[in-house]
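Archive maintenance. Older records in this collection stored only the sequence; we are now back-filling the structure field for every entry so that each record is complete. The fields below show one back-filled record exactly as it appears after the update. Entries are processed alphabetically, and VOC family protein is next in the queue.

ARCHIVE ENTRY
Title: VOC family protein
Organism field: Lawsonibacter hominis
Length field: 137
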Amino acid sequence: MPIAVNGINHFAISVPDLEASIAWYERIFGFTVIQRSVIPGIDAKVSHMQGPGFQLELFQVPGAHPLPAGRSVPNADLMTHGNKHMALGVVDGPKAKAELEALGVSIVKVAEIDGTYGVFITDNAGNLIEVFEEGPR
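Back-filled structure field:
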């Protein structure tokens, strides 16, 4: 019998500048910091931010490797195993795209596949995010 889950609890990403990433997620998506901590032994700074129905956990670790360039390009990223992106649902994809552009966010790719609409962007650290129109088009 499968394990019953309640939904997504959190999504975690490593960033080079915790404070800059906190500011970016606050400004672009309205996330709020709910907890800060440090992981002993590796001196990783951690921030938990409340998002829409889940938490975003940001890590800044001294000496971490930078994000490989291909991980910021949707189709190239598919060629590397592992997590691909987080997707945030919106009611109106084209409207969200215009709002992102007005906030100064560069659009990496618009994906219209099988009747769906998604806008790929990167955060301030290059991590892929999809803003995905939910519901029928």
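Update note: The mean pLDDT is 94. The beta strands are 10-14, 32-39, 44-50, 55-60, 86-90, 107-111, 118-122, 128-133.
Entry marked complete.
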